[in-house]
Design brief:
Length: 175
């Protein structure tokens, strides 16, 4: 195998590749379990939770839209469509930046916080059932490792790549 200029040849062992594939499979299955549990509770999809939870954690429940896209790893266009739906449901509102005519903020509403509270109960229950029991005392080590992986991948892949836009049922409303 010839390496591209600036890249070193792959040196992953079969065991390392299998560990990555297992991680990807576990991620997909956990996301599916959360989506299924949210749907069973007649709640919006996981992508809505990600936006609402990220805004809830931000100072004053507000973030610049491009920062929100970076935080939840969505393309700008994919996030724009999702924000349209959340705004129609009055879970957030957009506010223009007073200092930058092109800039805008997404701001969590009281209704958005209430919806997030309902969704978070289901989300946490699913995480508690299918994720945490298998980590033991390794939660912090896993979090630290995955943060390093995210940082490395973020350097290699621009967040606003169009391929990051969500597709399929997770981006559609379920009301």
């Amino acid at each position: 195998m010839t390496a591209k200029p600036g890249n070193k040849p792959a040196s992953c062992t079969t065991q390392e590749v299998e560990a990555f594939r297992t991680f990807m499979r576990a991620h997909a299955l956990l996301v599916g379990a959360i989506e299924q549990d949210l749907a069973a509770a007649e709640l919006p999809p996981l992508a809505w939770h990600d936006v609402l939870a990220t805004l809830d954690a931000a100072p004053e429940g507000r973030m610049r839209i491009h920062e929100l896209a970076d935080a939840i790893v969505f393309s700008r266009s994919g996030l724009s469509r999702l924000l349209d739906r959340l705004e129609r449901e009055e879970l957030l509102r957009r506010e223009r930046s007073p200092n930058d005519r092109r800039g805008a903020y997404a701001v969590l509403t009281d209704s958005g916080r209430a919806t997030l509270d309902q969704m978070s109960a289901v989300y946490r229950r699913t995480v508690d059932e299918h994720f945490l029991p298998h980590l033991g005392d390794e939660v912090e080590a896993l979090k630290t490792s995955l943060e390093r992986v995210s940082d490395s991948a973020r350097e290699a892949c621009p967040i606003d790549a169009a391929s990051l836009a969500p597709a399929g049922p997770s981006s559609a409303p379920r009301r």
